[in-house]
Amino acid sequence: MTGSLQDLVARWVKHIGDVGETLEVGSYDVNGGVRQYLGDDYTGIDMREGPGVGLVMNARELARKFPAGFFKTVVWLETLEHDDCFWESMENIAAVHKQGGHLMVSAATLGMPKHDYPSDYWRFTAEGLWCLVGRYYSVLETGYSDGSVAVLAVRNPREVDIRFV
Fold first, then answer.
1. What are the φ and ψ backbone dihedral angles of 60, each rounded to 5 degrees?
2. Residue 14 covered by a domain
3. What percent of the chain has pLDDT over 90?
4. Phi then psi for 133, rounded to 5 degrees?
5. CA 157, 109, 23, 139: dihedral to nearest 10 degrees?
6. Closest residue by Cα to residue 144 from 154, 129, 159, 131
7. In which domain, by residue range, is 46 found?
8. Does residue 164 fall inside a structural domain?
9. When comparing pLDDT for 10 and 161, which is higher?
10. What's the total number of domains in the chain?
11. N or C: which end of the chain has fewer CB within 10 A?
12. How many C-beta neighbours within 10 Å does residue 84 have?
C-alpha cells in the first residue's frame, strides 16, 4: 500500500473519530497497511493466512459469520481488483455494517499495471466505485493515490437485501 493512501486513511480516521468495531477486508500486509490507525476493536480478514490476518475467510462469507450491523467501520483497500465477485462481497459487507458507519474503499484505476496477489481481475474509475457503494452508502469524499481511487462513504439507513448469500 502506498504512503499516500495510508496518509489519506489516517486523515479519514481523524475525521471519523471513534472508529469503533472495525473490519478490514483484505488485511494481508503485502507492503504496508493501515492497521495502526484502526483502534483496538479490530478484525482483519483475508483469503489467505499471513501478516495482519486474523481470520482466513472470503468476504462473501461475512453475513454468515457476523451479525447484522456488527461493524462500525469497514476498511476495504486495494483488494477489489483481486476479488472475482466483488459485488457479492459488497452485499455481505453492507449486511454486517452498522447504519451510519463509515466505509473506506480503494481499488486500482485504469493505469495500474496488472499485479497478482493472488489474481488480478478488475480496474475501477471513481464513478465505478460510486456505483458499487451507492446502493448502501452515501459518498462523502473521493481521493486518488498512485494508481488507485479511494472513497470514504457513510452507511445509509436502509435495509440490505442479501441476494448472493
1. -70, -5
2. yes
3. 79
4. -90, -15
5. -20
6. 129
7. 3-155
8. no
9. 10
10. 1
11. C
12. 11
